[in-house]
Design a protein that fits this description.
By secondary structure, the protein is of the alpha/beta class. It has one domain (20-133): DsrEFH-like (Hypothetical Protein Ychn, Chain: A, 3-Layer(aba) Sandwich), CATH 3.40.1260.10. It is built from five helices and five strands. It has helices at residues 2-11, 33-46, 77-87, 94-99, 118-126; strands at residues 20-24, 52-55, 91-93, 114-116, 130-133. The chain has a five-stranded parallel sheet. Strand 2 (52-55), helix 3 (77-87) and strand 3 form a beta-alpha-beta unit. Helix 2 crosses helix 3.
Amino acid sequence: MTESFHLAERTGEQPLVNKILLVIESPPHENSRAAEGFRMATAMIAMDLLPQVLFVDNGVYWLVKNQTPKAAGLAAFKERLKTISDLIGVHVLSDSLAKRKLSQDDLDGNYHSKNLSLHEASQLFEQHEAVMAF
């Protein structure tokens, strides 16, 4: 697959992978995996490659209201996440919210996250050529 990307660069053709789904499954304040996913999304947007972002499992905690990221050293994530949500939108798995006893009311409305059922999330996966989990 790497060779395909290099070939596309040399010939001026479009990359083989245009539809990328970024899945955020890591919780905030535990490690920087999800923050790297936000950086990846930002970089893709800058290259006019608009990924979709889906929050699942403990990743849904990124969207919860009234977090204090500065205390955890993640102050910039709120701005980056807000920008991502404004430019490309974000999705959240309803099942993951329910398992954590969270609802849409618990989420920060500034992110305008769209709840997806398991069926809708599976369709989202099918629509993409590549999936990256953080």
